[in-house]
Specification:
about 300 residues; mainly beta; Udp-n-acetylmuramoylalanyl-d-glutamate--2,6- Diaminopimelate Ligase, Chain: A, domain 1; UDP N-Acetylglucosamine Acyltransferase, domain 1; 2 domains; eight-stranded parallel sheet; 35 strands
Length: about 300
């Protein structure tokens, strides 16, 4: 990893965030190691402390610490301290702007000429695009993805590896002989701007209309999103969750790991589920539900 002068990081923070205070940051240190374990700190380490553990700053002898504005500060000339309103957010922005390797935009393969591909798009190796796929600008798609026909992907979307997007959902009906027959799925999947999707997910097309992932929602790894689901803006769906068909999830909602949500139910805006929750009835806005089956724990 290339070494980066501390002063450059401080200038970046001051340009992007309000209410920044600095202690001993006039020293020119080469920041080359980003850690969060205090016992491994040295003069080139960059760390952050949140509200719960901000008092641990007294355990650190050297390096650079990003901490909250109301933290008590030790007298230590070997320690650089940056005080901000949201240490974790500032730490994240530093990682993105100084330590993450910039991606070169490449399209390794296009399967047909019926696709519409925007500018600065990355499409990884062994990724399949079926007919009628539309991809916006500045979108990154990793390796080994299958994106089926008529899927629409917006701008600034990130899709990891090994995802299937736009496949046929699990919808069957018995015929006159009592045998199950698959219901045709003639809808699609729409992924709006700034959505992020991890690895090994399955997102099914709608029977009619669209399965919707709205702006800025984030999907973790190993999530199943069934046909006709509508996930609201700025919501997070965490690993191993199962979102059944025609579920509606509101805005700013947190779906915890291993949550299962029964088909055609809804989870309101600004609501949360606890880990392993089984949702069999609607969850209103601004509530936390936990358990099997889910029960309200408290208002949010």
């Amino acid at each position: 990893m290339d070494k980066i002068q501390l002063l450059k990081i401080v200038e970046f923070i001051e340009s992007k965030f309000n209410n920044v205070k600095k202690i001993n940051t006039e020293r020119i240190l080469s920041i080359s190691k980003v850690i969060n374990k205090l016992e491994n700190s040295d003069e080139e380490s960059l760390m952050w402390l949140n509200e719960k553990n901000k008092n641990r700053i007294f355990e650190i002898s050297t390096g650079t610490v990003i901490c909250s504005l109301d933290s008590e500060i030790p007298t230590n000339p070997n320690l650089s301290i940056i005080l901000v309103e949201n240490p974790r957010l500032v730490f994240s922005e530093i990682l993105k702007n100084f330590f993450v390797e910039k991606q070169n935009h490449k399209i390794h393969s296009i399967n047909n000429t019926d696709n519409k591909i925007g500018k600065n798009v990355n499409i990884g190796r062994n990724t399949v695009l079926e007919d009628g796929v539309i991809i916006g600008n500045n979108t990154y798609i990793g390796n080994n993805n299958v994106i089926l026909k008529s899927t629409i992907i917006g701008n600034n979307v990130i899709i990891g590896n090994n995802n299937t997007i736009g496949g046929v959902g699990f919808g069957y009906e018995k015929n006159e002989l009592g045998e199950y027959e698959l219901i045709p799925h003639i809808g699609n999947v729409v992924i709006e701007d700034n959505v992020e999707i991890g690895n090994n997910n399955c997102i099914d097309r709608a029977v009619l209309g669209s399965t919707m992932l709205r702006k800025n929602c984030k999907i973790d790894n190993l999530v199943h999103i069934a046909h006709g689901v509508d996930i609201g803006e700025n919501s997070l769906i965490i690993a191993n969750s199962m979102i059944a068909g025609s579920v509606t999830i509101g805005e700013n909602t947190w779906i915890a790991p291993s949550t299962s949500i029964i088909n055609k139910s809804s989870v309101g805006s600004n609501s949360m589920t606890g880990i392993g929750t089984v949702v069999i009835k609607n969850i209103p806005n601004n509530e936390l539900h936990i358990g099997i089956p889910s029960k309200k724990l408290k208002d949010i």
